[in-house]
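Duplicate of #3305? Posting structure anyway:
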C-alpha cells in the first residue's frame, strides 16, 4: 500500500462523521489518490513532492476525461482535497499545500483556464401549473379512450397508460424537489 493510500484510509477512519454527512469527499479524495498513482504522475509514495500544481494537474486530468466540467464539481473536488490536506497538516503527515495560496483566486484561475461551466438555475413549473397540465392530460386521454379503438383495444389502452405515465414523469422530473413534494 502506498503512502497516500495509507493517509487516505487514516483520514476516512478519523473523519467518519464528516464522510457520512458528505460522501462526495470520499469520491473526490479517492480520485485524487488514483491520479497520484498514475504511471506518468507517480506521486502516491512521495507526499513531500505533492504541491498545488499537482492538484491543478489532477483537475486538468479529470476535466480532459470529461469527469469534471463545471465550477461546482471543481469546487467540490478542491474542497475535498483541501479538507484532506487540512487533516494531513493537523496530524503532521504532510504540509498543507493550500496554506500559501489565495484559495478563491486559485479557483477562479482554474475556472478560466479550463472554461468550466458556471452553475445554471434550471427552470421549473409552478405547482398549480403542473396540476392543471396533469388534469387536462388525464381528461384528454380519457376522452380518447372512450372512442372506439378497434381490435387492438387492450394494447392501445396499455400504450395510452404508458404514454400518460411518461408525460407525467417528464413534466414533474424537472421540477424542484420542494414543488414536487407540495403537489397533492
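Output from current build:
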Amino acid at each position: 500500500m502506498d503512502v497516500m493510500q495509507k493517509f487516505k484510509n487514516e483520514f476516512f477512519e478519523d473523519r467518519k462523521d464528516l464522510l457520512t454527512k458528505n460522501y462526495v469527499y470520499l469520491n473526490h479524495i479517492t480520485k485524487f489518490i488514483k491520479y497520484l498513482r498514475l504511471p506518468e504522475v507517480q506521486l502516491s509514495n512521495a507526499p513531500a513532492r505533492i504541491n498545488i500544481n499537482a492538484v491543478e494537474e489532477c483537475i486538468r486530468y479529470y476535466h480532459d476525461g470529461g469527469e469534471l466540467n463545471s465550477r461546482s464539481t471543481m469546487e467540490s473536488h478542491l474542497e475535498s482535497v483541501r479538507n484532506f490536506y487540512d487533516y494531513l497538516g493537523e496530524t503532521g503527515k504532510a504540509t498543507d499545500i493550500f496554506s500559501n495560496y489565495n484559495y478563491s483566486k486559485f479557483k477562479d484561475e482554474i475556472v478560466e483556464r479550463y472554461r468550466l461551466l458556471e452553475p445554471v438555475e434550471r427552470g421549473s413549473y409552478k405547482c398549480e401549473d403542473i396540476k392543471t397540465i396533469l388534469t387536462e392530460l388525464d381528461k384528454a386521454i380519457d376522452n380518447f379512450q372512450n372512442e372506439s379503438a378497434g381490435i387492438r383495444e387492450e394494447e392501445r389502452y396499455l400504450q395510452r397508460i404508458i404514454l400518460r405515465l411518461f408525460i407525467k414523469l417528464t413534466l414533474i422530473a424537472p421540477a424542484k424537489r420542494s414543488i414536487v413534494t407540495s403537489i397533492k
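Confirmed duplicate; merging threads. The chain has a mean pLDDT of 80. Residues 14 and 68 are 27 Å apart (CA to CA).
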